[in-house]
Design brief:
Blueprint: E1 9-13, H1 21-31, E2 35-40, H2 43-53, E3 59-63, H3 69-83, E4 88-91, H4 98-102, H5 110-131, E5 139-145, H6 157-177, E6 182-189, H7 195-198, H8 203-213, H9 222-233, E7 244-247
Parallel strand pairs: 1-2, 1-4, 2-3, 4-5, 5-6, 6-7
Helix pairs in contact: 1-9, 3-5, 5-6
The protein binds NADP nicotinamide-adenine-dinucleotide phosphate.
NADP nicotinamide-adenine-dinucleotide phosphate binds at residues 14-16, 20-22, 40-41, 45, 65-67, 92-95, 119, 144-146, 189, 191-192, 194-197.
Length: 256
């Protein structure tokens, strides 16, 4: 236990189960003293989340489907009422149609493209806009991205394009919110076996290549990602904003 996030309220969006990257971050944030708010999409997801946090104190569960402006407004109204001030926001949300992750990228439909962009990129802008007024004492926001935004990983397809938009959004949000003392960053995570990752056909190949090629010769863990997130959420990173921070064992630096 450390006190890097003591007395801080942190909203974590995107915990589906104990394998979720968001859960790895939530656990480390809790270890660092944060008060947590976790979101779920609907009743089915709420039940799973309730089981996951059973017996843990100081965790508030609230609904939010990020495709709904109404749901986002409702979420932050409740947080404002119950907590007053928000210190941290973790956006760990992405979605693409399975057919857009299995067919060649050139086949991506207009609907599929817009859906992936809406949930995986625009939602960061929408929640950042709603969270900022509650960050009256400054704050830190972070999202999760992947190397497929800059390089072609066959099968990552439309999600790579959405991640490129998400990373550019991170920089523009950092610019807009910086004068309010709010920092906006992204973690570019190495591959982790999660429900979302299962949707990417080439995922097990990618997971196998990293320990062969990455400088650290291993895949990253939820603990690795959680600890880096605590760094970005805490004052340890007080001078850092607009950054895409790689937590991938160094894989991104390799040419071959
Ligand atoms: P995950 O456990 O499946 O989490 C994805 C989350 O997105 C789920 O909690 C899901 O909610 C949520 N979500 C999808 N649509 C939503 C909507 N309309 N409204 C609200 N929430 C919605 O997978 P994960 O791998 O940890 O993904 C977290 C983030 O990390 C994603 O941005 C992903 O792209 C990124 N990332 C993952 C990897 C990897 O290898 N796993 C690598 C780099 C980056 P439900 O549970 O309600 O469906």
């Amino acid at each position: 236990m450390n006190s890097l996030l003591k007395e801080r309220t942190v909203l974590v969006m995107g915990v589906r189960n104990k394998w979720s990257i968001a859960w790895g971050i939530a656990e480390q944030a809790r270890e660092s003293g944060a008060r947590l708010i976790l979101t779920y999409q609907g009743d089915r997801e709420r039940e799973a989340l309730e089981k996951l946090v059973a017996g843990m104190e100081d965790i508030r569960l609230l609904p939010c489907d990020v495709t709904s402006d109404e749901a986002i407004t409702g979420l932050f109204a409740t947080i404002g009422r119950e907590f007053g001030v928000l210190n941290g926001l973790v956006h760990a949300i992405a979605y693409a149609k399975s057919e857009d992750l299995s067919a060649p990228f050139v086949e991506t439909s207009r609907d599929g493209f817009l859906l992936a962009m809406n949930i995986s990129a625009y939602s960061y802008v929408a929640v950042a806009r709603a969270a900022a007024p509650l960050m009256t004492k400054g704050g830190s926001m972070l999202t999760l991205t992947y190397l497929g935004s800059e390089r072609v990983l066959p099968g990552y397809n439309v999600m790579g394009v959405a991640k490129a938009a998400l990373e550019a959004s991170t920089r523009y949000l950092a610019h807009d919110l910086g004068e309010r003392g709010i920092r906006v960053n992204a973690i570019s995570a190495g591959p982790v076996k999660t429900m979302s990752a299962k949707g990417v056909k080439s995922f097990s190949d990618i997971l196998g290549i990293v320990p062969e090629k990455a400088p650290l010769r291993r895949n990253v863990t939820l603990e690795d990602l959680g600890r880096s997130a605590v760094y970005l959420l805490s004052d340890l990173s007080s001078g850092t904003s607009g950054e895409i921070h790689y937590v991938d064992g160094g894989f991104n630096v390799m040419g071959i």
